[in-house]
Design goal:
about 200 residues, alpha+beta, Nuclear Transport Factor 2, Chain: A, 2 domains, 6-stranded mixed beta sheet, 5 helices, about 30% strand
């Protein structure tokens, strides 16, 4: 009986190992998948943002991609339109990867955005040469070589503060000039009225 059980165990054990190997990826296979996913994430920064090769998005994003925003989600078309707008507003845009980590189908990237606003209008602001530097974090879910989901966060208040700080003196100068023009206009109008009143009374 004991020999029969031992023989049965020896016959079944390889089958169990084969099933286990099929259901759970081996460590080298998982590591190579994570390395491939990190390479895909790196292409977003280097090729799309830095080099402006927008067509790369067709290769590495899934058609049903979703950018999970805080208040609403964005599809691939909206997401890439925002990328185009940023590149037009900041022609010298440079995205630098500070840290990248992968686990399973998730890739997390800490990045720094640097650029000078010399191009198109950005959120209604005309180009005034503001130098912007922001740090943010993005998490992507990458399945079968395609980016399917994204979660991105950065300090929007810091961006607004950088715009306000750098535009403070030009805006104050503009305001000062506008006040002088208004004062001069008011002075001219008052003189004209005094002249008219003097003529009317004489």
């Amino acid at each position: 009986m004991g020999k029969t059980l031992l023989l049965l165990f020896m016959a079944v054990a390889p089958l169990g190992a084969a099933f286990a190997a099929d259901s759970v990826p081996s460590l080298p296979a998982l590591a190579s998948q994570e390395a491939r996913n990190k390479a895909i994430a790196g292409r977003v920064f280097e090729e799309i943002f830095n080099q402006g090769k927008f067509q790369v998005a067709d290769e590495i994003y899934a058609t049903d991609f979703v950018n999970r925003g805080l208040h609403r989600n964005f599809d691939l078309q909206e997401d890439q339109a925002a990328v185009h707008a940023e590149k037009k507003a900041f022609p010298d845009l440079k995205m630098t990867v500070i840290l990248m980590a992968a686990e399973g189908d998730l890739v997390t990237v800490v990045w720094v955005f640097r650029g000078t606003h010399t191009g198109a209008a950005y959120y209604g602001l005309p180009a005034m040469g503001v130098k912007l530097e922001l740090r943010g974090i993005t998490v992507w879910r990458i399945v079968d070589g395609k980016i399917r989901e994204e979660w991105t966060s950065f300090d929007q208040l810091q961006a607004a503060q950088q715009f306000a700080t750098q535009l403070k003196w030009p805006l104050l100068g503009f305001l000062f000039v506008a006040l002088i023009l208004v004062w001069a206009l008011c002075t001219v109008i008052l003189r004209l009225r005094r002249t008219q009143l003097a003529k009317a009374t004489s």
